[in-house]
Amino acid sequence: MLLTPWEEERLLIFTAAELARRHRAAGLRLNAPEAVALICDAMLEAARAGRTYAEVEDAGRAAVDQADVMPGIRELVGEIRLEVLLDDGVRLIVLVDPLGGPGSAPAAEPGPGAIRPAVEEPPDATADLERRTLLVENTSGRAVRISSHFPFDRVNARLRFDRAGVAGFRLDLPAGSSERWAPGESKTVALVRYRGPSGGGPAGAPAGRGPSDGGS
């Protein structure tokens, strides 16, 4: 039997929903994947039966009660997005707080899955560290990208600048960010010293290579 990717995904949802139904029938409270599978399965079945958009949405909201799930799952599953095939074509259905029930208020005591916003912004951990700016030229014929926390004196050799003067420094960017140089591009970047002995952080400068989409 030849199945399309959509049909394979439908069978995966059905299988997960069947497992969830078995667990619920045995008196077990559902985890997040089981609850999501039941809700999605109910909406897909309603769409298959020719129901309207609103009826499909209602079927999803009625599929799982808040009492059926483990503590914190309602907060963890804040939104479900599912594409269903209706009479007028494929439609995206978005259920916000799908385990809350119609018109229910937010949980009084957020569970383990809740997102609790900070009361105030955390202090800048690099505020007291030495900073400097540096002109960097990409001499390569390909683009070069350097990640935020890579030791800047050890980046791609085709970036031209004073390497000896930036030992113990990195790009002054948030963790996970990066800077990109187009072929032949020169730009001035901000650097910040690593925290710790010799500017290498608590355990010395991290090892590895600076990510690059070329010029390596």
Describe the structure.
The protein has 4 helices and 8 strands, in the order ααααββββββββ. With 216 residues, it is of the alpha+beta class. The protein folds into 2 domains: 5-96, Urease, gamma-like subunit (Urease, subunit A, 2-Layer Sandwich); 131-199, Urease, beta subunit (Urease, subunit B, Ribbon), CATH 2.10.150.10. β1 (79-86) and β2 form a beta hairpin. It starts with a helix and ends in a 23-residue tail after the last strand. 26% of the residues are buried.
Q: What's the domain count?
A: 2
Main sheet overview: 4 strands, antiparallel
What is the molecular shape?
A: elongated
Relative helix content: 10-25%
Low-confidence stretches: 200-216
Q: In total, how many beta strands?
A: 8
Q: What is the number of helices?
A: 4
Spatial arrangement of strands, main beta sheet: 5-3-8-6
CATH topology of the largest domain: Urease, subunit A
Order of helices and strands: HHHHEEEEEEEE
**CATH C-level name of the largest domain:** Alpha Beta
Query: What is the alpha-carbon Rg in Å?
Result: 26 Å
- What is the CATH architecture descriptor of the largest domain? 2-Layer Sandwich
Termini Cα gap: 46 Å
What is the name of the CATH superfamily of the largest domain? Urease, gamma-like subunit
- The fraction of residues assigned to DSSP E strands is 15-25%
Mean pLDDT equals: 84
